[in-house]
Amino acid sequence: MIKKFYIKIINILLIIIIKLLVFIKNKVRRIRKIEFEYFSDKYRLYTKKYFFIIFGKDKYISKETYVNGPHDYHLFKKSKTLLNKKIKYLIDVGANIGTFCIPPTKDRLIKKCIAIEPVEKINDILKVNIILNELNDKIKTYKYVISDKKNENLSLTLNKNNYGDNKFKISKNRKKNFPIVKLDFFINYFDLNQLLIKIDVQGFENKVLMSATKFINKSVPLIIEFDHNFIRQENSHKIIRLIKSKYNFFSLLDKKNVEKEKIENFDKIFYKIQKNKTHLNCLIY
User: Fold this and answer.
1) What φ, ψ does residue 153 adopt, rounded to 5°?
2) Domain 70-284 sits in CATH 3.40.50.150
3) Quick one: DSSP state of residue 144?
4) Cα end-to-end span (Å), the chain
5) Domain ranges across the chain
6) Nearest of 143, 139, 145, 149 to residue 211 by alpha carbon
């Protein structure tokens, strides 16, 4: 009888210790960072409120998600506050593993979403993550490259350490069988007055924006990560003029204290990021 009592006490203590260790791991970022760096497998599972299969070798989006929570979700939250209106629909261009589109949809901030990710192995994980979060009926995925020309020869460069830095480029010598559509292909899918578009395409912004003129003409809010080379790309000045004619404000989302700035000053930001060879996340509205 006494033996059974002590065994029960030991089991209770073990459960408490295990729960405490899990709590500490979830709360202490440094521990999670060390764990990801030194004990990474091919895949890992993130299970704090949202469920994500993440890549063990990805030192950017997967690592950031594992350590701090869903990558870039804070950009959505900031944008929603700035827009100060109902946003029910989302088009996520460059969705990666779903860390931007899955959280607001699961939190019921977004009703329906289109998630576009053209890299096959990442698109496969995106689909799994949507299933894990039980959002099959709310998020529809596409494996398209978004561009303004449908018959372009494209090459894809994969970054082995940063799965968010895979780049498509126009190629004269190589032709890959990538399905290409314009972003305007989706113009009739959602109510444009309640739509937000996020674009994160690693230097392909000019091609995506040139394919989205119908959305821009309707002043649909855009979250865009601009590469420092954008200003030197084809049609960049044409895109800037179009944006300045159709929107009223922009905000730099990477700032700690985000401000509403007049669209007249929009083109000035590119000379700063070009000089520093960096990038920025921008809300245009």
Assistant:
1) -85, 125
2) yes
3) P
4) 71
5) 2-66, 70-284
6) 149
Q: Provide the 3-class DSSP secondary structure of residue 91.
A: strand
* Strand, coil or helix: 48: coil
147 token code pair:
């561009």
Yes or no: say if 76 and 100 are a contact pair by the CB < 8 Å rule.
yes
pLDDT per residue, tens digit, the chain (285 aa), is: 566 666 777 777 777 776 666 666 556 666 565 556 655 678 888 888 999 999 988 888 998 898 889 989 999 999 999 998 899 999 999 999 999 999 999 999 999 999 999 999 999 999 999 999 999 999 999 999 999 988 888 877 777 777 777 777 777 776 567 899 999 999 999 999 999 999 999 889 999 999 999 999 999 999 999 988 888 888 999 999 999 999 999 999 988 889 999 999 998 888 878 777 778 999 999
- Determine the residue type at 56: G
CA 119/CA 194 separation, integer angstroms: 28
- Going from the C-alpha of 227 to that of each of 51, 73, 203, 204, the distances in angstroms are 29, 19, 5, 8
pTM: 0.84
Read off the tokens for 244: 């300045």
CA distances (Å), origin 226, targets 160, 199, 202, 252, 272: 22, 9, 8, 11, 12
For tokens 């040139």, the residue is 210
Alpha-carbon span 266 to 247, nearest angstrom: 10
Among 25, 78, 18, CA closest to 47: 25
Tokens of 181: 């559509």
Q: Which residue has the tokens 């821009």?
A: 216
In sequence order, what are the residues at sequence separation of 6 or more whose Cβ sits closer than 8 angstroms to the Cβ of residue 120? 143
Can you tell me which residue has the tokens 């760096």?
37
